[in-house]
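Good morning N.,

You mentioned wanting to compare the apo and holo forms, so I went ahead and generated the holo version with flavin-adenine dinucleotide. This is what I fed in:
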Amino acid sequence: MAKYLRKENPEFDVVLVERRSLFMSCPMSNLWLAGLTDLEFLTHSYLDAARNNGYLFFNASMVDLDREARRVFTDQGYIDYEFLVLAPGIDYNYKAIGVEDLEAEYALRQNYPGGFIPGSEHLSIRAKLEDFEEGLFVLTVPPGNYRCLPGPYERACLVAHYFKKEQIPGKVVLLDANPDVTIKRNAFHEAFDTLYKDVLEYRPSFEITSVDPFKKVISSDFEDVEFADAAIYPRVRAHKLIEQLGLADPKSPQYEAKIDVFFNNLVDDPHVYVVGDARPMPFSKSGNTANSEAKNIARVIAARAAGREPGEWVPPHTVCYSVVNGDPVEAVMVDARYKFDEASKQFAFDKVKLLEERSTAMGQAAFEWAEGLYRDMFA
Ligand SMILES: Cc1cc2nc3c(=O)[nH]c(=O)nc-3n(C[C@H](O)[C@H](O)[C@H](O)COP(=O)(O)OP(=O)(O)OC[C@H]3O[C@@H](n4cnc5c(N)ncnc54)[C@H](O)[C@@H]3O)c2cc1C
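and this is what came out, ligand included:
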């Protein structure tokens, strides 16, 4: 977004407020968990991105917002804005899996992290795999519009691949809150059944009602599953910043922002925008989607800054590879746009291309796609 705002109008004075000092990619991180790529491939410098593209990287945390005064407060000082774009991503909602108690929530966050927010969670899961000796390693798939629909299934495949390769006497159990695999269904079922029959057990319709992180038990209304180790992915919600700033839609089950669904500005404020996974639209919560949306919204802001109408809505673009086999590296993919149905007032997938027969060519294409995205963001 910062880069494309400058491309739209080189006169724009763009500041990126980001609380991390290092970018770590979630896409391709499942491959890193299984030893199929290195950390250098996933990590990138915010400083270089800002220097290469003529904006300022301000390594700070946003803490408050005064929309009247158009002022953003951070832990390092304040910034006055003409246009503000919020893209804080997601948080986990532990209450949705029956974990109300803060001590239990933090025991879960620390000992069995979801691994869908980049950084320490991924390092922790990789260390767990390396130390794993025997028993059940549980992964979970949440309900709702969670971050990266195929991500938990890809992770299950690649952790199972790792168990096979390292001859670990254990089993990966994937507990899915949904009645079936939510995307690339045939491809994942085929991989579960043919590549990982003895090491991976897929259990649909497992709606978690409670987790005891001390006794290491995950429960649904019907059964309890004891695990040796786990990475528990709860239901997602928009990052808490959205709610703290009073921007969440009270009707949104995932506390997502109340925005114009075509141009992403707050319904009552054309100076403040929410993009990426904190948006309420049912688009895939994925990196390619966020990247294409950012370019569209940069155009909207540039038009409005120049006193022009933003023009037609441009749908975001979802491109998502999933690596299902580690030896050889084979992937499947989906490519889709979106359309808005005026009669039902709903968004739906459009122009969907689903390639579910895994191949090494798509395995290679997954790396090329990621390299292209990193180049677009950082070069
Ligand atoms: C394991 C995994 C695999 C994935 N695979 C794919 C894939 O193959 N393809 C794909 O397209 N997508 C994939 N995704 C999804 C993709 O990573 C996300 O959809 C994308 O990162 C969303 O972008 P975002 O900008 O909304 O959120 P984020 O990337 O989470 O960025 C939000 C940023 O806001 C910062 N922030 C939050 N609060 C504050 C604050 N108060 N002040 C300052 N900064 C703040 C955070 O530090 C963070 O850097 C995957 C995700 C995971 C976890």
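The domain at 2-19+60-89+239-305 is CATH 3.50.50.60 (FAD/NAD(P)-binding domain).

Happy to go through it together on a call whenever suits you.

Best,
F.
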